[in-house]
Amino acid sequence: MNAKTILLEAFDARWEKFRAELKLCRAEFSEEAVHDLRVASRRLLAFLDLLRSVVLHKRIQKIRRVLKDQLDDLDDLRDAQVLLADISESLHELPELEFFKLELQAEERKLLKHARKAIQSRDFGRLKTRIGKTREMIEGLPVEPLTGQLLSAGDEIHARMMAAHTAMSAENIPGIHKLRIAFKRFRYVVEIIHPLLPNYPEGHLKRMHDYQSGMGDIQDMDTALQKLADLKDPASQPGFESVVDHFRSRLQGAVSDFFESSGEAFVFWRSAPDQPFPWEKNRS
Question: What is the DSSP string of 112-140?
């Protein structure tokens, strides 16, 4: 396939996936539906970020804004639901988690009401029209320079990710969060353009997912500690310190586990545009 075909097929797949998940989430507002809609939204956003490196048009930014607003409606709900699922697995070992579970359930109820209303009321009519015009714009792109433009975009987003990798440390949890966001964008872009790369390793996409998951574990434990710190009158909660120690210990463990393999970031892309990809070196 040429680069334009790859772009069109990726665009169509991500748009159709987004539409399907939005329809499902409106009909069946469940934790799984919310999660799948968030993932579909982020993948479509990643495509638009990649497209902006090839063509600049205000229409793309307008589509991005709609998707970003929807994600903002769901982010806090995602955090509460992930922590509730985590607590349900640990409650039998640490009964003191009960008060935190009740706090999160109350928060979840409020967020569910807000998120459901936002998804049901948001008008996506213009989005469909803009998506159609964007597809026409992709169809009109010249084929010849497109491969080089897409690989250059990969180089740029990889460079930003590696800059975040250099800046983070085990003591700098916000720095790890910045790397997680930069790596997620890089991963989603590679998902789109990897068919352009000869001999791309079959297992790399899964390895990238697993690498990102390690940072996600850190984010979840840090979010739990932040929520605990924001509780009103925490000293009145029985077992509060035990719960804090529980999440602090797990945060330290997640950080330690991640740093054992943090250097794996170097194997997913070339170090510079004039350098071979790591898997090409291994074949020589």
Answer: HHHHHHHHHH---HHHHHHHHHHHHHHHT
| CA-closest candidate to residue 116, choices 17, 16, 30 | 30
- Domains of the chain, by residue range, sit at 1-144, 148-274
* pTM for the whole structure: 0.89
Rounded to a whole number of angstroms, the distance between the first and last alpha carbons of the chain is 25
CATH of domain 1-144: 1.40.20.10
Residue 249: exposure state from Cβ atoms within 10 A (0-12, 13-18, ≥19): exposed
For residues 83-104, give the mean pLDDT.
94
Which positions ≥6 away from 131 have C-beta within 8 Å?
15, 63
Q: What does the alpha-carbon distance between residue 238 and residue 24 come to, in Å, rounded to a whole number?
A: 40
pLDDT band for position 283 (50/70/90)? low
Which residue's structure tokens are 């699922």? Answer: 85
124-164 per-position pLDDT tens digit: 888 999 999 999 999 999 988 999 999 999 999 999 999 99
